[in-house]
Write a structure and sequence with these properties.
Length: 279
């Protein structure tokens, strides 16, 4: 079974890398200046739609994964978790290929923790239910990705953007903070069933993601709801491993998207003009 899960993860990696490559052959909207970022977010949106809705439907049809998140799960749940492992590895490769390590090290660390946790479930066949609950966070990531795509398309003043902002805040509470709270409470109560290494790994991840999620909600609430204003354009030095260009981009110091989570913000001058960062 472990080899089968790794095979699914490998196939998922190839599929998402193929999607990245295929999008390069397709035209992007003319208003998009950050073409790589647009393609990357689009692929992330596809993963969030698949994993988020899959986790929600799976937990609805098989609630035993919540009552016994360690052992009780159907085989297809393990497949879905393996697909997410392949995605996070593919996304990490895409970032390393298109950006410098200095731009992506923090998000790569996040992906490493996520892959480590999900891979444990895929290889061992345990904690699949726990992993499925964690994939509910991708439902909020759907709204975050849509919001970011609208920003990249310069639609910050549109009705669609306002709707996406409210949807982001609503799903952040329902599908990010509540699942994180449940997982934290379960880990605290059932820590004797989990090895010390996993308790430390999961605990660190939950504290980190929870803190960022709260910060995310506050920033979007202030930026989009309490103090709405047009997102100005600035010139920043955008650098990838292949090219170094100076081009206008949208300032967005508050858009965080955990994949799950990614945080998008303009780079400050103190960061050496490295361009747009995703964490």
């Amino acid at each position: 079974m472990a080899s089968g899960g790794l095979l699914v993860a490998g196939a998922s990696f190839a599929a998402f890398r193929g999607l990245h490559w295929g999008l390069q052959l397709m035209p992007t909207p003319e208003s998009i200046r950050e073409r790589w970022m647009w393609r990357n977010i689009f692929v992330s949106l596809m993963h969030s739609l698949l994993s988020g809705t899959g986790a929600l439907v799976g937990l609805w049809l098989f609630p035993q994964m919540v009552t016994d998140p360690i052992y009780d799960h159907p085989s297809w749940a393990r497949v879905l978790v393996a697909v997410s492992v392949g995605y996070f590895v593919a996304d990490g490769v895409d970032m390393l290929w298109n950006q410098t390590l200095a731009q992506t090290w923090d998000l790569l660390c996040h992906h490493l923790v996520v892959v480590s946790c999900l891979s444990t479930a895929v290889v061992s066949g345990h904690f699949v239910g726990f992993s499925m609950v964690s994939l509910l966070l991708e439902l909020n990531s759907i709204c975050l990705h849509l919001r970011k795509l609208l920003l990249l398309s310069h639609k910050a003043s549109s009705l669609a953007f306002r709707v996406s902002s409210w949807a982001t805040l609503t799903t952040l509470v329902l599908f990010r903070l509540l699942p994180l709270g449940w997982m934290s409470l379960w880990l605290f109560r059932q820590h004797y069933q989990v090895s010390l290494a996993l308790v430390i790994l999961c605990g660190t991840g939950l504290v980190t993601v929870g803190s960022i999620s709260i910060s995310l909600g506050v920033r979007i609430l202030i930026k989009d709801v309490l103090q709405p204003r047009p997102y100005p354009f600035i010139l920043v030095h955008k650098e990838t491993q292949q090219t170094k260009t100076c081009e206008p981009v949208t300032r967005n110091n508050s858009t965080l998207s955990l994949k799950g989570m990614e945080v998008f913000s303009s780079v400050s001058p103190q960061e050496g003009g490295a361009g747009k960062r995703r964490w």
